[in-house]
Amino acid sequence: RAKADGRGTYRFFETGMDARAQARRLLEMDLRAALQRDEFEVYYQPIRDVASGRVVAFEALLRWNHPQRGLIAPISFIPLAEETGLIVQLGEFVLRSACTDAATWPDDVDVAVNLSPVQFKSPNLIASVTEALAASGLDARRLELEITESVLLQNSEATLTTLHELRAMGVRISLDDFGTGYSSLSYLRSFPFDKIKIDRSFVSELATREDSMAIIRAVTGLGRSLGIVTTAEGVENDAQLELLRREGCTQAQGYLFSKPRPASDVAMMLGGPRLRASA
Ligand code: C2E
Ligand code: MG
Ligand code: MG
Ligand code: MG
């Protein structure tokens, strides 16, 4: 109907909201059921030392094996899991799985786990990390927790306390997606980071944009002077890897080496120095 009177428009809008709210409720129910039905699985993506080419760690990346919809990426369900608080349970599942899997890997291969800001602020965090380490027997020094800048925005006192508690346990902290948020340099001074992960957007434009190159150079230089490891995300080709090596970036992660894969593929991913993702 072409007639756009105020009331019609309003009703249309309201109907749209209803549909959206309903889809949200369905997804929420689906998420809860999925947790019960064990439909979540942790995939792993290798992170290599740029100088030696050795796999030094794997990042744990959550996937949902949906019975009807197939494999679902985190972008499609993590925001709702955060809104509903389900992320705390999901996050505990990832922590437990990642520590249990990593305990079976060689001792010099670490595991990196993403923490949602909601999970980071939950009073359970220290207990869940302690439990995951104890249950798996994984050395705390092999666990890295990745947080984003949004965690650092509010209540810096509490954040700082949590970060220090984690580090006192031996766990290392990475600042994920660096360069996409507020990227205040004062964060690097105020909070105890072991690693900076340079966001994929800078890496993808490395060869074509002078300014991306300049940013990578600045961040790797900063890392070097502050004694913080730098990891480039989203490395997809040799040209990017070569530029990163030249700038002295410590580690690289990306499809050039492998896409994230199930835990059963870790041994294979540890194999050759230049295994490529073929699927
Ligand atoms: P992230 O932590 O920055 O993870 C890196 C993302 O980049 C992953 O997407 C990975 O598959 C993708 N990636 C890696 N190399 C390449 C590449 O060469 N090219 C391209 N185009 N992409 C690459 P994924 O697995 O879809 O995860 C997306 C985001 O979801 C993650 O970004 C992280 O923020 C969040 N996430 C994933 N797993 C978890 C989890 O267990 N808990 C929480 N809280 N968040 C998670
Ligand atoms: Mg990450
Ligand atoms: Mg990242
Ligand atoms: Mg990223």
Automatic annotation (TrEMBL):
Residues annotated as domain EAL: 24-274
Superkingdom of the organism of origin: Bacteria
Name of the molecule in the record: EAL domain-containing protein
